[in-house]
Fold these 2 entries.
Entry 1:
Amino acid sequence: MALKKTKVCHFCVNQKDIDYKDAATLQKFLTPYKSIVAKKRTGNCALHQRKVTKAIKQARIMGLLPFVGGR
């Protein structure tokens, strides 16, 4: 049985702050249909996943990220 590689939180490792104005970083945590990717797939810790989710929602309201994606 192969061992799974443990994922580490991108924000804990890089000591990077989450900002709703940084659309390029937040784009990495969206699917092609623009729904938010679960922390199980991204590897974020619970604290940073909540902050990412809040920042994505705030960026959507500000018009920096789309609510829905194309086909």
Entry 2:
Amino acid sequence: MFTEQLKQELIQPISAEMHCGEYIKLDRSLFRPLRNSFNLAQTSLRKLSQNPDGTEIETLLEENTNNWEQLSQELLDIFKQSSRDIELIGWFLSAQLILDASLASFATAMEWLAELVNEQWDYLNPVLPENKLKAEDEAGKLKEQSEAKSKAFFQLVGDSEEGSLLYGPFLMLPLINEISFFHYQSVERKGEVSVLKQKVSAYVSNEKETVKTKIESLERALTAVERLTNSTFEHCRESNVTAPNFNFIKNIIKKFESAIVYLTGIKLNKKVAAADTADTGNDTEASKAGSETENLKVQNQSESGQSSSSEQIMLTKNSESLSKVAANNSMNRNFALHQLRDISDYFRQSEPHSPVSFLLEKAIRWGCMSLPDVIKEMMTEPEGGLVDKIFDSTGLNRMDQVVLPEVDEVNPISINQQSNTQKVSHTPEQQIQQKIHTSEPSGNDVTSNQQPKSDEARKNTALSW
């Protein structure tokens, strides 16, 4: 695996004069073996894309893994000792997709490339030697160097999604269990993705952490690609050169992530990252909380002593406590929607002939919509005859399930507990702690990604399985 430790090691300069080493294509004795290993790995990947016989799959998979493992190790040795080159890093990114299904190595490698581009652009290969430059002035030479770097990205980014070097490896990757991205796309083109979703539902609970790791890695990779986009644009603009287009890579990653989210219903809580960042200020907040606690103690001592704890709570109520209640309500609401989904899945599997599951899904969908949209849908007359009206009334006209926000980070409060929150006595210290730890969920979590997006039909390529 390509770890954070390896990344930090490969950020350090190879030498004081040449931070990223020499331009390896000028040394055929070094470049040719690498090129041969890359071609061999590409060939073994292509064999897997050509509908091999069932008896050959295990052998081909092992051969493919070994070839990419060898290429990855050879490239690592080059990166450490000889050269860090954009084209070679593109090969390395492909290898990480094949070798690490968690996508953690791929994300770390993408972050490494983004950092090299941002911090060591002038040294990052290709760096053309003076005798290869046609321009005589410094501005012209700088433009030629930037053009060479921009063109070196082409194999990685491609001129289409299918043309990207990452497209084939992504097709092989499993979304959940043994369902590959290629399988998902094939089913999606047939309009049977909801059936596939039902088939994989049994694996979701067992693979929840694995799926979360994949989504986290994909988000890291997207952030790194965005950083790459900005950095290359700035460097190329200085030289008046067209920057590489990373949109196709972004689309591949986003579609892969959307497929995982749709099949599993698992989404990352976007508030978690913000909460982690906020943790850095905990010491300051704690000191403020301590001061506020002391002030409350002084106030309490000056009271006649007849006020109860519940009265003290009422006296210290403010807008922050209201937002806390709203946050609890929202989180409990999401938890309730997940419970409805569990009930719906039960009826869908145990009584597929019954409309109960579809009616529950209709309720869930309405629960994720705004009130005006719900009213508008209720007032819209369904087209067609009696059968269409029956399908609309029972929810049978919508087979897909709404993707619900993740609630693992939430400790749900029961209805009875929530109704008694004002009756429970708390000390002032407990009030302060509640204020510190309360966080409001984003309203966008409920409405985003409610309907799966259908992709355009893809062209046939050598890796269209």
